[in-house]
């Protein structure tokens, strides 16, 4: 459970750091691509954590 929480926390910090900068600069295409790739990375990281429990 701690690994899962750490992964979510790390990705939340990355989102909180990058998204305001992208919005401020008006880079909406980059924001969409960044969000898409980050969510894929989060999903794969969560799957790896779940896999390690099995």
Mean pLDDT: 92
Q: How far apart are the first and last residues' alpha carbons, in Å? A: 13 Å
Order of helices and strands: HH
- Strand share of the residues? under 5%
Quickly count the helices.
Answer: 2
What shape does the CA trace take?
elongated
Q: Sheet with the most strands?
A: none
Number of β-strand runs: 0
| Helical content class | over 70%
Compute the gyration radius: what is it? 13 Å
Residue runs with pLDDT of under 50 for 5 or more positions:
none
Structural class: mainly alpha
Keywords: Membrane, Transmembrane, Transmembrane helix
Transmembrane segments: 32-50
Report on this structure.
Helix 1 packs antiparallel against helix 2. The longest helix is centred in the C-terminal third of the chain and has 26 residues. Helices cover 93% and strands 0% of the residues. It is elongated, with a radius of gyration of 13 Å. With 54 residues, the chain is mainly alpha-helical.
